[in-house]
Specification:
Largest sheet: 6 strands, mixed
Low-confidence stretches: 1-22
Shape: globular
Helix content: 40-55%
CATH architecture of the largest domain: 2-Layer Sandwich
Distance between the termini: 68 Å
Strand content: 15-25%
CATH class of the largest domain: Alpha Beta
Number of helices: 19
Number of strands: 11
Strand order of the largest sheet: 1-2-6-3-5-4
Structural class: alpha+beta
């Protein structure tokens, strides 16, 4: 009897932990999973008679090899080039106008691909039909496919004309090694030109399936009626089998063994730029550190921070920014600095010094932490005011973390202590190797001789 009592108590404890681990949806949010695996989230907001539809897939740069780099974005763009109901992009655009669709766009990033638009709430059924046809029955015209490849290659060339783009590309190679392409969805001109319709079909087959997707409907809608419409329209969408992340595992990024410095020269560079990157935490292995990262970044970016005093108020730099990108697979911590062109060496010396000091107890204060928590929470609340934007924010967190992470964010942010932030800084910044890049013009490079000071020594 004692053994049965113990097992019953153990089971009750387990159930309690599971229930506490699942965050409660907000009162205006309703979640349902269709039998084919499609997650459907309805966000009710009757302030304006509009509805926003966002379809998001867990697909992007992180699911691509070097040879297939950029093909996910290429495929997503093809969804707007025609389908079984609309012959071409002009036909699609005309029908969008008839439905009153606005804010229509598609995005491919590191860990998600999504398409979205806003339309009058009275046209919800027609909008759901329109998105369903666009996603599931793309025409994939060979002629349009070649045109889209040229458009993307021209976009790549345009970005290459920016000197800061060269610095960012170099950083990807130095920070992530031979997996650099899994951190940029743009791809390369070589991979895009080599892409075939078969490659695009492979992306669709692997990742653009209902069991790898979230559909968000937000606005002046009723959840019960919306669920019924979605199930009627999307219910016959065939799932893609097992979880693609298990069938095609994402390779782990190799940690840096030592700090790595490099310079990039560009005649187009009007002023020097320093970029310092660390491999930060992710939502698979260290969720608490992701909250600490957000608080730390907010504090450091303020004019009253010790880094600002050391760089800006001293005249060593004109601006800087530190940020952390929350991802499921190793989010980067990025520090950008615009050094005084006459004091680049002195600025970098001070940056190194400040990085070492960041793990000290007095580098940030309790007051700064409290202010950061309050201001981040206010920013999150403001995001909820515009449903058309808020739905896209939710889709990002669903892909890179989870809905539970998103829903519990504000509560968990408040739990972060001074010790948690120090632990984050020690684990990922002050006592870890990093990559540092310096962008400057050839003329300034000759004057400064960066090899003499822009090193890890």
């Amino acid at each position: 009897m004692m053994r049965k009592f113990y097992l019953a108590a153990l089971f009750l404890s387990f159930v309690t932990m599971v229930l506490h681990a699942q965050s409660k949806l907000q009162n205006n949010m309703f979640l349902k999973k269709l039998p084919n695996g499609l997650d459907v989230l309805v966000v009710e907001d009757n302030t304006v008679p509009l509805a926003t539809l966002v379809m998001t897939f867990k697909a992007g740069a992180f699911t691509e090899s070097q040879n297939s780099s950029g093909i996910t974005a290429l495929y997503l763009n093809m969804l707007a080039k025609g389908n079984k109901d609309y012959a071409n992009q002009e036909d699609l655009d005309y029908h969008e106008g008839q439905l009153g669709i606005q804010l229509s766009n598609s995005t491919t990033a590191e860990e998600y691909s999504r398409t979205y638009f806003t339309l009058p709430a009275a046209e919800l059924k027609e909008g759901l039909d329109f998105m369903n046809t666009e996603i599931r029955f793309a025409k994939m015209s060979p002629v349009e496919f070649q045109k889209e490849k040229e458009i993307i290659c021209n976009e790549i060339k345009s970005k290459q004309s920016s000197p800061s783009f060269a610095l960012s590309v170099a950083m990807l190679h130095h920070l992530w090694g031979n997996l650099y392409n899994r951190k940029t969805a743009l791809g390369t001109e070589e991979s895009i030109r080599a892409a075939t319709n078969t490659d695009a079909d492979s992306v669709k087959t692997k990742y653009f399936n209902p069991n790898n997707a979230l559909l968000i409907v937000g606005g002046d809608v009723k959840h019960d009626a919306t669920f019924a419409l979605v199930e009627k329209i999307y219910g016959d969408w065939t799932p893609g089998g097992s979880d693609p992340s298990k069938k095609w595992p994402i390779p782990e990024f190799k940690p840096l063994n030592k700090s790595d410095y490099y310079t990039v020269e560009s005649p187009l560079s009007k002023s020097p730029l320093i970029e310092v990157n660390w491999q930060g935490p992710d939502t698979r292995n260290d969720i608490p550190a992701t909250y600490a990262a957000d608080i730390f970044s907010y504090i450091i970016n303020q004019a009253s921070s010790k880094l600002s005093v050391a760089l800006i108020q001293s005249g060593l730099a004109t601006s800087f920014n530190i940020s952390y990108l929350t991802l499921k697979y190793r989010g980067p911590i990025t520090l950008y600095i615009r050094p005084n062109p006459l004091k680049v060496k002195e600025c970098m010396v001070e940056v190194k010094k400040q990085i070492e000091l960041m793990s000290q107890d007095d580098y940030i204060s309790e007051e700064q932490i409290a202010t950061a928590k309050r201001m981040i929470e206010i920013a999150k609340i403001r995001q909820e005011e515009i449903t058309s934007d808020y739905t896209k924010t939710i889709s990002f967190w669903w892909a890179t973390a989870s809905l539970d992470y998103f829903i519990g964010y504000r509560d968990n942010l408040q739990k972060v202590s001074h010790a948690d932030i120090r632990q984050y800084v020690e684990k990922y910044i002050s006592k870890k190797p990093y990559c540092a890049g310096l962008l400057l013009s050839p003329e300034l490079s000759k004057q400064l001789n960066p090899e003499a000071f822009f090193t890890s020594n």
